[in-house]
Amino acid sequence: AYPEKSLQSWDGTMAADRREPLVMAAWWREFARELYADELGEAFRPSWGARAVFIDNVLARQPHWCDNVRTSVPETCAGLLASSFEKAMQDLKKRYGEGWSWGEAHAARHRHRPFSRVPWLARIFDIRVPSGGDAYTVNAGASDFHDEAEPYANRHAASLRAISDLADPQASVFIHSGGQSGNP
Q1: Which H helix or E strand runs over 174?
Q2: Number of H helices, E strands in the chain
Q3: N or C end of the chain, less CB within 10 A?
Q4: Structure pTM?
Q5: What radius of gyration do the chain's Cα atoms show?
């Protein structure tokens, strides 16, 4: 088991080589599911996301959202946080076994068009790079919680990286994240 207390010493850095960002993202994903899937019904899946402001409001001021409207026994936010943590740990073990890191689960994928549609060519031309960051960091990399196959994959990130040398502008360097003109 991955003890909840290990997150207490984590500084929130979404580093690719760390385990805590993935634990937190998985916990957040399961908490969001338990929090508002019952109210939204069929509309839940396309609306399933991190929704940081909503989660903050629920935990700080609107705990009535933690009650599952489909049950007769009232649920609490503390109970939902505990049960969603356990579900997150079970899901991570099922997906990744015992060892995992944020970067492996949050890989940035560059699909070649059109070769990504041909499995044996995709293995050669597609690029998959472990990445840090998330939707709330400078090193942006948003995920789609509703993607059951890869809910933590880096789906939306910067495509251009630049280092500008203000003392010598000619020494500045730039690159597209998939390589020059998408050429790996």
Answers
A1: strand 173-176
A2: 6, 6
A3: N
A4: 0.83
A5: 19
